[in-house]
Structure to design on (223 residues):
């Protein structure tokens, strides 16, 4: 049983480039969540998606960040025109439903902006 | 706004020395309190969910308890392999968890 798969594990981008982070949830899970962990800080919620729908994006910066979870394929977190402050570990999690079931996390993508 | 505070930030124990980690929370309507373990370079690994005050859950050397304002993670006779960061999180709306800063546990042989 494969868990949540994230790729790439490490991503280096220069300032101004785009970063695309991919997440394949646990098979059968239709709820996907993205969290960000800045150095020396806790995990912060960014966005909650179901297939083809953004349910809540209250934790995601309004500019440069976008997320999708298409009918087919992985969920994508996209960061345009990256800046040094975007350097962090980005974790994806999935669950089979929205209430009462624990989140299963992937091992994250570590983004470094140079 | 939901708030979760974990203490201590770091804890060093000798192998076999039992202790407790604290998670204090403020939330408008608790749907669940979660404990996770995170190893360096890995994602959080689920340990327990607690739903109501008075509830307790156990797994091997770990026991989690819940009151109306805080949760404790008790570690009995820890081993070096229990060394990790332990995260507490609360859910008040649809699994969009609010995490505490974590307790970094180091168990020396």
């Amino acid at each position: 049983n494969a868990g949540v798969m994230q790729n790439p594990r490490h991503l280096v981008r220069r300032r101004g480039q785009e970063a695309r982070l991919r997440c394949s949830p646990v098979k059968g899970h239709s709820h996907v969540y993205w969290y960000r962990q800045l150095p020396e800080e806790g995990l912060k919620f960014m966005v909650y998606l179901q297939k083809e729908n953004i349910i809540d994006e209250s934790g995601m910066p309004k500019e440069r960040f976008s997320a999708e979870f298409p009918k087919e394929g992985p969920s994508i977190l996209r960061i345009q025109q990256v800046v040094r402050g975007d350097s962090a570990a980005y974790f994806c999690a999935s669950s089979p439903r929205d209430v009462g079931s624990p989140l299963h996390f992937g091992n994250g993508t570590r983004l470094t902006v140079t | 706004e939901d708030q979760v505070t974990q203490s201590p930030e770091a804890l060093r124990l000798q192998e076999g020395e039992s202790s407790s980690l604290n998670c204090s929370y403020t939330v408008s309507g608790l749907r669940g309190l979660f404990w996770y373990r995170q190893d360096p370079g890995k994602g959080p690994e689920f340990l327990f969910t607690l739903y109501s005050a008075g509830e307790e859950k156990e797994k091997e050397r770990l026991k989690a308890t819940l009151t109306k304002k805080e949760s404790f993670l008790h570690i009995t006779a820890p081993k070096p392999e229990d060394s990790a960061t332990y995260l507490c999180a609360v859910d008040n709306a649809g699994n969009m968890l609010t995490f505490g800063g974590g307790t970094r546990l180091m168990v020396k042989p």
